[in-house]
């Protein structure tokens, strides 16, 4: 089976204009997302990460893998992650997303949500290694899941977006400074989902 990527830029869909946020969404960036989902599920070395929550260490409510260049070491929730090497699929997707976004990426956080019981809590991608205005590019495969974005001080400024398989969602500018995002649990989804968030980590 071949896994060809389109050379042209994806078609971006209009999103609500939120002050302090730079957002783009392409619902059909990747062709044949089911085939890509199966390849990523099988090719990535999935792990159960430990995170700090309310002062104690707990198992993350999803499976993950940190992948990137050798110097793309990342600290999240007081845990230091040394990257796994790029797989062929992740390297190809990184190159395509970098071209579409006009931004270099040296790492990707891979998350496997096994069902609607797996989730991601409210947070901002605002670690010092990412710089003051990071570009975070997110590819989704598998089940449709609900992504929520909320302003840190004004809850009326928000976005609620179902991320389609094969879609690309990009956050840039001061989005991480002013907003948090999450992926809530849902009893309506039984199928798994793979999400890839590409980013650029400053070498330590």
UniProtKB/TrEMBL annotation:
Cofactor: Fe(2+)
Keyword Ribosomal protein: no
Biological processes annotated in GO: DNA alkylation repair
PROSITE patterns: FE2OG_OXY
Keywords (A to Z) from UniProt: Dioxygenase, DNA damage, DNA repair, Iron, Magnesium, Metal-binding, Oxidoreductase
Domain of life: Bacteria
Segments forming domain Fe2OG dioxygenase: 104-202
MF GO annotations: catalytic activity, acting on DNA; demethylase activity; dioxygenase activity; hydrolase activity; metal ion binding; oxidoreductase activity, acting on paired donors, with incorporation or reduction of molecular oxygen
Protein name: Alpha-ketoglutarate-dependent dioxygenase AlkB
Organism expressing this protein natively: Tahibacter soli
